[in-house]
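Structure request: HTH marR-type domain-containing protein, Acinetobacter rudis CIP 110305.
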Amino acid sequence: MTSKRITEVDQSLYAVHNRLFFRLFQAGIILDRQSSKEMGVSTAHWSVLGALSREVVKQGMSFSDLTHYLGFSRQNLDGILKRLEREEYVMRNSDQQDRRIKIVQLTEKGWTYWISLQEKTYEFYRQALAGLSLDDKVAFLHLINKINQNMHTVTLQQLQQNESN
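Returned structure:
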């Protein structure tokens, strides 16, 4: 912590925040491990295939749009796409209007693979969300969306300026 005095209320709130973010981190690790073990696909591959399987991008989407949609760095996404290209699940082609833009889309083999995952995906979700009502799931989705939106706006610049004064 900083050298500033933190009240007991602040410490309690910090403990809740710390536990919440730890549990989010832990859930991500468990999701990654279990999806590889039970479904035979990494969460990174699963998320790329899922993003490209959406109806609105059936003809593919630009590499830049895919990085933004998934939240991956360009370097990480490039590595993932190279592996998926080797497996012949995705392909990258130049955009017809602007040859500098690469369009990423599922191949026929990629679609077949994605479809083959659907029954496992459904069952994975069903078991992972067991005991949660539909209202719980909708509320949780709403709260995760709020946290994600807030994290995009986090800036510690003011804190860093205050510490240097």
